[in-house]
Write a structure and sequence with these properties.
homotrimer; alpha/beta; UDP-N-acetylmuramoyl-L-alanine:D-glutamate ligase; 11 helices; 9 strands; globular; ATP-binding (chains A, B, C); Hydroxyethylthiazole kinase (chains A, B, C); magnesium (chains A, B, C); EC 2.7.1.50 (chains A, B, C)
């Protein structure tokens, strides 16, 4: 990992260059619906992928991979052990965990796992606006009158409304939070950057958010959490903008999107990324 | 849910219009092979998707979704609890369950679950001809000399041969049965409609039947079971006919098919659906 | 199963002809990441697919299918029973098992299953170079100074380095080993054939190796293990060469590849397969 350059665009292109040069492995425990897209997006972005269910396999992957991705969709009983075990191992190794708290509020196990992750926190959280608010609430990071109760898999809150939650989480984990939406928001403890671009069809393909988390883990293997979250979000927005141009619907969009993830080089990524700093 | 219009075509276009307007959520417990296509087809048809394995998560989804989809492929031990629990919850909530009894006859758990579903029956069964016969037999709805023994995942019986079975199931569940084949057959207690169209390549892509069940659940969230089964079957046949035109093989067919599911508006769907009423 | 013709090319085209004529079923226990591609590749190559997790379902599939495929990726606790049970059933039925030992060395269960498979061995092993070496070591088939320790999911060893391991495994199982790489290597107890072609993009799509194992099982249902492994490897290389021509990246490559698997007839397959015999 080299010294990070000064500008955001330079940090993104350098991260992309290191991913292309080193093909870093990011192991995953991720959901059954979108696991294939997660792996293919990680490969297309320049990384390596390996998915597991069992705790001892997850522990082995935390040791050989540069980062690890946990997505809470489609939980099975074995995840009660394997996800917290992986998170603790990563904490002890000081290796980055990327968390997608999808489905937060749905069922008992998800809440129990998120309680355990409070003590072995991720370096990056990738989520939508309502999930950011729900996670900040569950970890006791927010006060005030925000609505209680379970939050689902849809983005019910505007990304901007989740800014306070994202910053609270970023400070608590001393890492970064990427909130996906029409405009993405990437927050560290002291900076907030908006990332523009993409396509409305991204909401019509399952797993765009899940696979963004997986790609963020690939980037996290080569750079700091904030740069990794930003590079992944920018890579997705640029690829989404490109894929939108020629597609005829959600399936051809997904195909063009993965092709674009693969085609976009580090310099193009930096040149086409539309970033706006909102605070620091 | 508005009053259903008189003609079948009008009922289909109205259902499609309501799906587009409300983006209804249909939760699923479905198989690992085709779960990604189920979710993408539900999104392309205008609905929302959420998949789970665990019983308490399924119960939570039955409460927030307008309908629920259960597909018996790739069973895991946890499905012994979660599928019957979801079915009983839906019965008590009077919300529609769509069932795909894929693999009926294979293994012990599948039969045990289907026995439990007899007392918490689906509103719609989506299956092929041999599965319809096997299910009608297992639930004791048929008599006579039809062949005994387990039936597999292939359509060994012509759709027309399954007409009696489909009607017997439809009467028993007081709902609808959609039997997929070269010509689909949709039966209620007192009507049978054939749906024509589609493509021979639909048998060369895994999950066309599974995902039809998922789309039927999306429609079941906004209309009665018979209209929902008919609208989903028609949507699939029309999309299959369109996708057949330009494709070069099964993978490009699947891509064009999902794009077509998304592109076909309510009026086009009604205009292109080829229906033939066989009895009432 | 007819008498095998004399030349390798003739054996391949005859196997492809029998697959197209009989649409053989090969059941699978395979990983969640790539299960959809495995099924679609099996269908595109002319076979039938059915995937299970549970032991009694696997046993039922071994009885109705002409061959069976086991892939060790994404293991779950239930696989501790179902995989060895399926392997023993196939041994007792004298039906071919195709094994992909992906992830060998990762976690305890995978090693335990592979120990059990030593006594109920596959007819075909499909793997990469490092996996071939690791498997030959685990089964005690190699001696010398090859590197110890767990081997991952990437091909760390050149295919040629794995030749000794592949032949040792082929002799031990009295079957065939297909080692995937830039040039594939297919070994029986007394022959080694290299298969050329394909595309560099095959390493950028998850599941090319997994699905090759599934297609090898389809071929194994109609011919001897060596011919089956060779036909599947040749089918993949020819389809990969064709798909490479027009694609714009890994996703369009995968689509063109599956279309090509479906489009390539037995005569084209034999005409376009590039084989080189290395020893007998």
């Amino acid at each position: 990992m080299s010294e990070a350059p000064a500008t955001l665009h330079a940090r993104i292109s350098q991260a992309a260059r290191e991913v292309r040069a080193t093909c870093p492995l990011a192991g995953s425990i991720t959901n059954a619906v979108t696991v294939n897209l997660v792996a293919n997006a990680q490969l297309a972005a320049g990384g390596s992928a390996a998915m597991v269910y069992l705790a001892d396999e997850a522990l082995a992957l935390t040791q050989v991979g540069g980062a690890f991705y946990v997505n809470l969709g489609t939980l099975l009983p074995c995840h009660a052990q394997s996800i917290p075990a992986a998170a603790r191992a990563l904490r002890d190794l000081a290796r980055p965990l990327v968390l997608d708290p999808v489905g937060i509020g749905l069922g008992e196990l998800r809440g129990q796992i998120l309680d355990e992750l409070r003590d072995a926190p991720p370096a990056i959280v990738r989520c939508n606006a309502s999930e950011a608010i729900a996670l900040a609430r569950q970890w006791g990071l927010l006060e005030g009158d925000e609505a209680q109760g379970p939050r689902g898999v849809d983005a019910q809150d505007a990304v901007d409304d989740a800014r306070a939650a994202a910053q609270a989480i970023a400070r608590f984990i001393d890492g970064a939070v990427a909130v996906s939406g029409e405009t993405d928001l990437v927050a560290s403890a002291d900076r907030v950057v908006e990332v523009e671009g993409g396509s409305p069809l991204m909401t019509k393909v399952t797993g765009m958010g899940c696979s963004l988390g997986g790609v963020a883990a690939v980037y996290a293997a080569v750079t700091d959490p904030f740069t990794a979250a930003l590079a992944a979000a920018a890579h997705y927005k640029v690829a989404g903008t490109r894929a939108q141009r020629d597609c005829a619907g959600p399936a051809s969009f997904q195909l063009a999107f993965v092709d674009a993830l693969h085609a976009i080089g580090p310099d193009e990524l930096a040149a086409e990324a539309v970033l706006r700093e909102r605070g620091r």
